[in-house]
Amino acid sequence: MRAAMTGAATGIGAIVAQKLKARGYEVVAFDIAEPEGVDQWVQTDMSDPAAIARAVLEVDGPFECLINNAGLPPRDGLEETILAVNYLGLVQLSEAMLPKLAPGGAVVNTASRAGAMWRDNLVQVKALMALSGPEALSGFVAEQQIDYVRAYNLSKEAVIAWTLAQTERLIAMDLRVNSVSPAAVSTGILEDFTAAFGERVAKNIARVGRPGRPEEVADLIVFLAGSDSHWIRGCDHVIDGGMSALAQTDQLGL
Amino acid sequence: MRAAMTGAATGIGAIVAQKLKARGYEVVAFDIAEPEGVDQWVQTDMSDPAAIARAVLEVDGPFECLINNAGLPPRDGLEETILAVNYLGLVQLSEAMLPKLAPGGAVVNTASRAGAMWRDNLVQVKALMALSGPEALSGFVAEQQIDYVRAYNLSKEAVIAWTLAQTERLIAMDLRVNSVSPAAVSTGILEDFTAAFGERVAKNIARVGRPGRPEEVADLIVFLAGSDSHWIRGCDHVIDGGMSALAQTDQLGL
After folding, report:
1. Do A165 and B239 count as a contact with CB atoms less than 8 A apart?
2. Cα of A101 vs its chain's centroid, Å
3. Could you tell me which InterPro entries the record lists for this protein (chains A, B) (predicted)?
């Protein structure tokens, strides 16, 4: 079995790569930094369409799965790059990789609990989805007054919406796609989230006992990438230790 | 490892029992009919509170998981029994079994895509959740004019809502609960759903290519019952070959 993935050098992705290797996959990684222990590394700047196009040409299919895990956290000043890497780059790389996926192949996208409000923000999500490429981001960010926190949330909202929107086309290609929405995971970028989302993050973590571990999210990604989940299509899977359930029960008086 | 489950004799549950056995679990089954290949069968009428209370006394913990899979399909005339088995019996058995679960133990509830509208029907869902027991169902069904299709949908809506609502309490007990929402699965009761929900079922099946297979739903249940999913808490997991995604993309113009 062969897996292609982005964002394999650090955080959740590094553990996904390890777990895939342990299950016998050959792992091909697109990343700006060199990941450890993968079979092939294709250095790729996921914010640069030309780099993505070149990178995909360097790998041969077929792959049983494509795991789109690369993503930037909410960081001030990175508004455009966040939208370019987390959403536009993910879409471009996926489109180029689809013909290299084996029949029955799975795409798994790392979204986020921060994207949970995608239905409420659908007009802006659709506007992002309609952009021609990252060159249009500067005008879009200015016009829509998107700060770095909103850029992050919007990028993940769009990942969830794009996942849904590809379901029918991928069924016709004998492929499938799902997304994973983790919250508050103890990786190198947890501080960015605490800074961006404030006290709420600490409160949610306290309520469920601790932050998630990258291993836990990796287990879900590996499940969705493998054949034991092949009837699961077009769904977003929350993994947050119960944070989302607690928020809903509070809100709904359950 | 030891698993307790309801509804192990037929359909999805029979395959869950097989898969658990293949993974080395000892399987204890509560069912009105005798399941094949389980380690202990406790004959249980899940519509009868006294029978449930007796059944739970017959088994000793600890169990690593409790899988609440027993359920009746939408069948005319069974309004009260559907609500009694699919929801009230599930809750009663779970409450009695929680003290027999091992630390870190998982509860998995079989809900249904038919329960997806639980938020829209929350007033009625809460009214069902507030009933004292099946003896109150006759008045409830009459007063709320609940037919058999509504009884089925409501029972599954309540399973999803109850799952969410137990999350915080179960975290404090070092336990967790999730639900699974399959749609149109090729088991002995698929005809009931086609009769109850009409053409829509056939249309949805055609669009995603075929009905789901019980094995596919069983794989998800086994994943949620096991340790690879232990950070997933209080979530409903749709497994429908993409039906829900297609309905949403149609509705939202994605």
Report:
1. no
2. 18
3. NAD(P)-bd_dom_sf, SDR_fam
Rg of chain B in Å (alpha carbons)? 17
- Smallest Cβ–Cβ distance between A167 and the set B122, B223, B242 belongs to B242
Give the mutation candidate from B210, B220, B229, B231 for the A interface (greatest A CB count, under 10 A). Answer: B231
- Stretch A171-199: mean pLDDT, rounded? 92
* Tens-place pLDDT, residues B170-213: 999 999 999 999 998 988 888 888 888 888 889 999 999 999 99
Which stretches of chain B sit within 8 Å of chain A by CB? 119, 122, 126, 161, 163-165, 167-168, 171, 176, 207-209, 212-213, 216-217, 219-220, 223, 228-235, 237-242, 244-246, 248-249, 252-254
Binary contact (B165, A216; C-beta < 8 A):
no
Give A245 to chain B, closest Cα distance, Å: 5
Cis peptide before A49 (omega within 30 of 0): no
CATH number of B2-249: 3.40.50.720
Contact B167/A239, CB-based, under 8 Å?
no
Chain A residues with CB under 8 Å of B171 CB are 208-209, 241-242
Name the nearest CA neighbour of B62 among B100, B112, B113, B107: B100
CB-based contact A231 B241, cutoff 8 Å: yes
Tell me the residue length of chain A.
254
ipTM field: 0.96
What local confidence, expressed as pLDDT, does residue A222 receive? Answer: 98
Q: A209 and B171 in contact by Cβ < 8 A?
A: yes
Domain A2-246 carries which CATH code? Answer: 3.40.50.720
At residue B31, does pLDDT exceed 90? yes
pLDDT averaged over every residue in chain B: 96
Calpha distance A177→A234 (Å, rounded): 6
Query: What local confidence, expressed as pLDDT, does residue A25 receive?
Result: 98
Does residue A169 contact residue A107 with C-beta atoms inside 8 Å? no
Indicate the pairing of strand B26-31 with strand B40-43.
parallel
C-alpha radius of gyration, chain A, whole number: 17
Q: Is the pLDDT of residue A71 over 90?
A: yes
Judge: B219–A229 Cβ closer than 8 Å, yes or no. yes
| Contact call for residues B26 and B3 (beta carbons, < 8 A) | yes
Q: How far is CA A157 from CA A79, A236, B60, in A?
A: 15, 11, 46
Mapped onto helix, strand or coil, the DSSP state of residue B130 is coil
